Amino acid sequence: MSEPDVTPDLGGAQLGDTAQLVDAAKLDDGAQNGDPAFASQEAVRLEDVHKSFGDLEVLRGIDLSVAPHQVICLIGASGSGKSTLLRCVNLLESVNRGRILLWGQDVTAPGVDENAVRRHIGIVFQSFNLFPHMTVLRNITLGPTRVLGVPRDEAEEAGRALLVRFGLSEKQDDYPDRLSGGQQQRVAIVRALAMQPGIMLLDEVTSALDPELVSEVLGVIRELAAAGMTMLIATHEMGFARDIADRVCFLDEGVILEQGPPGQVFTAPGNSRTQQFLRRIVDAGRL
Amino acid sequence: MPVRGSREGAYLDEQTLLAAGAPPPGSFEGNGRGSHLLGGQRAAAVSTVSTVVFIGAVIALFVFAPGAAAVRHTFFNPQQMKQAFLGDPSKGLYSVGKGLILNIEMFLIAEVLILFCALVIAVLRQLRNPVLFPFRMLAVVYTDVFRGVPLIIVIYGIGFGAPALYIRGISTQSDFVYGIAALVLSYSAYVAEVYRAGINSVHQSQVAAARSLGLSQWKSLRFVVLPQAVRTVIPPLLNDFISLQKDTALVSTLGAVIEANRAAQIDSSTLFVYSSYTVAALLFLCLTIPLARFTDRLIARDVSRRLAGGRAVR
Ligand SMILES: Nc1ncnc2c1ncn2[C@@H]1O[C@H](COP(=O)(O)OP(=O)(O)OP(=O)(O)O)[C@@H](O)[C@H]1O
Ligand SMILES: [Mg+2]
DSSP assignment, residue B225? Predict the structure, then answer.
């Protein structure tokens, strides 16, 4: 079993890895469990992260630590900076101050190869962002073939296995616009998984879906959590967050006001802003 | 029978309802011969009649206008038209038909080169690699200049300028080559802008999705952005090629290139009949009109596909 190096060298140097695509069985194993190097470190660490867009300071000093296999849910009002935080971790946005470490390595340091960093991080967006000109299978194999250099037939085989695993096998030759929203979002998750990421970032992946399609996507995420995937999830689905999270972080105006196990945050929030936020959610019938 | 809920009875019964002017059955069908005919056979009949009347009026203009006979003689002289099409070397007349073949050759070669050069320029303007900065600036200046300068000036500049330079390999080319060079220089600037509009029309979230897979900027452009951009710019590109097709005629002003328009000029100067212009114009239309209809169809297909796509996503 040739797992990719789970404490990858994220520096400017080329990653010498010839990462195999994860296959269904490996996901089941929670294969990353056994690796001591992986288990000994934090998967993600944010230290005093600041991010501004012009005059607007969106993140105002975020400190966050995510251990391997942990599932962290970010909750908070719209505009509180959840998406921005996830985009910073993936280097889609550059931070103005502070550091972000992945498996102990500073990825905000100068000279870091951002493409090398990103290939170890899977991100799924609210709006799916599938490539409309490619079939489902091509969407999934693009990254492995063009970034990891996996041979086409190997990548397709692995992609098909993932599609089977997530109940999408009949859709492999369809174009994204023929799929329902829920199916598109599941394909987007599979596309990210095909890169064998060490961590998944999920940004309100169910907000664009009709209510009856939400559960199929949440089911997939639950499966990932059960398989031991490290995840950072921004969500408005409080019931889901309470269910799945090891830790819930309440984000308010660019700072984490409160964090803790879901039982604590949802039932006995210490901060008055958290209480206020949760009361509004309860009033809206969403918890 | 009183309507439910009315205690007084009588004032809301069926009788009163009808009396109060509830329309009798069928009263929405309109009067006369059934309004749906207006959208069907009737419309077809109306448009046929109006077309016939219009064409009749145009023909009448040609037949009865004071100068009609002269126009017919100069522009629509069947004898002259035939001669212009075939050419007559013995009288020093070029063939408009043959000229057109040369024209098409020039168009095809230029088109391939333009598609390629313009793409390179558009991509150069897009890449944010600092190493490429001077090329990016060059691309900007190039598009600004050649979009601003009329094609005819570019043709003269190259056609008369290049030979005057006495540079080996450049100054000894034929007008055919100079003509293509001028067309490529001028049109690449326009087409690059079309490509660029296409690239910018691809949503930023597509780039984010590609980059987040670890694809480099170039690979994102190559595999994700460009394929989508090119699809959206095909109709406007075809529009540009329709005008390229007719602008190849301008190359004739360099003199030696024998093509449709040029043939017409020579012919008219000797015989003082303009029928050869008509032939040239008709031949050009034979090329550009099918291209235009093809463009329309592509646009229509694109629109319907987008509508279908929008419905699927909701
Ligand atoms: N690229 C950008 N340029 C300027 N402002 C931005 C940009 N991206 C985000 N913002 C601003 O940053 C703030 C935080 O946005 P962000 O998307 O992170 O919030 P969020 O918590 O994800 O909200 P939501 O729950 O609505 O998704 C908002 O005020 C937003 O307008
Ligand atoms: Mg957001």
Answer: I
